[in-house]
Amino acid sequence: MSCLQEEKNLMNKELTYSQPDIIKRESLHQMARKGVSMPDVSTNRTPPIYPIESLFTTNYRLPKDVDRAHLELHLSREDFLSAFLISFEEFSVLPLWRQQQLKREVDLF
Questions:
Q1: CB–CB of 30/37 below 8 Å?
Q2: Contact 108/56 with Cβ under 8 angstroms?
Q3: How far apart are CA 94 and CA 10, in angstroms?
């Protein structure tokens, strides 16, 4: 096989690998324009509140309607303050890595 032919084969492989990515991006873009791929964040629904004991990650039976990535949102203000020793407002301005570290320390990650 000549170098020129190898180069053409390589270019064809690169094109076939990148085409699905382009198609995926276009379809996601179309879905976003329709509002399908994004959750409705305009509603100010408050998440259901649960006792901290039921939200520990060591509890394998978490309530079905909790956001597993953000268990801290389902705590009452009192439970949040007793667990993290800071207010929710202070917690929310912390860097993500620090929030995750604190959640690990109190078994909510």
A1: no
A2: yes
A3: 46
16: which 2 tokens? Answer: 């076939």
> What amino acid is encoded at 89 in this protein?
E
**pLDDT digit string, tens, across residues 1-46:** 565 666 656 555 544 444 444 444 445 555 556 655 444 444 567 8
Burial class (CB in 10 A: 0-12, 13-18, 19+), 69: exposed
- Asked if 67 contacts 82 with a C-beta cutoff of 8 angstroms, the reply is no
Between the CA atoms of 3, 4, 5 and 6, what dihedral angle is there, to the nearest 10 degrees? 50
Q: Sign (positive/negative) of CA torsion 68, 72, 78, 84?
A: positive
